[in-house]
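INFO batch 0412 | record 1 of 1 | parsing
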Amino acid sequence: MKVAYWGSSRRSGVTCALTAIGLTAVLSYPFKITIFEDHYSENGVFRYLFPRRWLYRVAEPVHSYGKGKFQDDVHRLSRQCRADDYPVIELLEKGLYYVPQFTRNEDLFDYQFHCNLLPVLRQYSEIAFIDTRRGNALSSKMILEEADVVAVLLKQDMYEIQSFFQNYSSLVPKAFFIISDYHRKSKVNLAKIISEFGFRKDCIGVIPHSDEFQFAADYGRMIEYISSNYMGGVGRENHYFMQELKKTTFMLMQQVAFNRELGEVY
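INFO prediction complete | emitting tokens
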């Protein structure tokens, strides 16, 4: 079951949303989720999961999956397990896993992912969350075409939403929409967006703006933030943030579970 996270514009919050929803989903439900990235980025998933001093220590050259070594620091930070001969870091026990970036060379990463990991994804039986590049990555078009659900990240901007429908209407049938960095007091609120564009209410969610969440994410403390605030959060802002994040996660995972059941039937 493949869920591609994708944004129609730059800085739409794809990576941050994927990581937050992945963490929330495995805290809420008995899912096993593995996070993949189809492109190299210094601002990738890893930056949200570990403090800054560890950011670049995972991006070492690996000649082929299953034959390279990560630094001892990464081994101490997380459990290292292997499946299908590619490295996987276990983030939350028996729930959330991450396939780390293996080189800082963008072209090499693009090629290796296309040749080695894309075939793995096609046969993957568990739930895969894929941070999917907007643009010309070798695998991005195929991932979007083959994904069971596409989580489309949109900014809270009417023009951008209109632009999405004009340019990417082919994604609509399997899209779940997420408004990132959502400000509930904005004139362009969720009710107006739903009314203007005719979204189904069960196919669109928000991840609210939160200074505390963003601070934690920027310093690699997202696991700690979501885990400690999961039961409600201290303070009105944290409570509202977690309430909406859990609601959005629930609606998205409903689509994932529905598609999974359809796949098993057929």
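INFO post-check: Confidence is low (pLDDT under 50) at residues 55-83.
INFO record closed
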